[in-house]
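Researcher: Next entry: GTP pyrophosphokinase YwaC (Blautia hansenii).
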Amino acid sequence: MHKDTIKNSIREDASEEFDILFPERFIKNTDYYNSLMMMYRCAIREVSTKLEVLDDEFSVKYKRNPISSIKSRIKTPLSIYNKLQRLGYEFTEQNIREQLNDVAGIRVICSFIDDIYAVAHLLAEQDDITIIRIKDYIQNPKPNGYRSYHMIIEIPVFFAEGKTPIRAEIQIRTIGMDFWASLEHQLRYKKDLGNNEQYALITQKLTECARTITATDNQMQDIKNLIGEYCEF
Ligand code: GTP
Ligand code: MG
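Model: Predicted structure:
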């Protein structure tokens, strides 16, 4: 696939409203776009399999599963388009591949904080995975209270014509962190939340919740450590 093959893929009449209603009609040259997205879907499958294998091995060795669930998604065409626009890039295959790290997104939900680091470490150790960037929002939470461990990785995906390195964003978090992030994410899309004062109050309450969840996550980890002192865990 050549770098500019999807350069003119955005329809002239594409508008946000149009895309939300008919996302599949947003793209003119769907063949090139679809094969690029297929590569991202394959990368997600590769990473998901690696995670499932790690979880399986762990459950045989330690009789419990570090991963509670795995979710994944491919960025929508509008979201890709908007992000490239925001960064000042055209909608081309090269720009999608070089400028965006999160077209393929995988979210790993763990029970305990130490499971997050165990999963991240075991994944990073695999020799076909290249770590592009790590952001540890558990050690350094965002001011609003957001916590998660983020990895941008590159993984080779094998196709008939050879292998291609594909980037993916992996977010690893506890059930509690996910609970908080889901509600906070929904809040950001509520445009009719009332005046600034009400919005500030909700934001403040959410930050308080993040603190409570952090305390609970830490207590659960302490309990797990105590149990671990008495039996193999
Ligand atoms: P993006 O341009 O949003 O992808 O940000 P970035 O490139 O600086 O990456 P970062 O690692 O900070 O965040 C990437 C992703 O993490 C977001 O797309 C969200 O899924 C998640 N995230 C980051 N911050 C928050 C937050 O404050 N709240 C919630 N709910 N999710 C967040
Ligand atoms: Mg993102």
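Model: Note for the record: The chain has one domain: 11-230.
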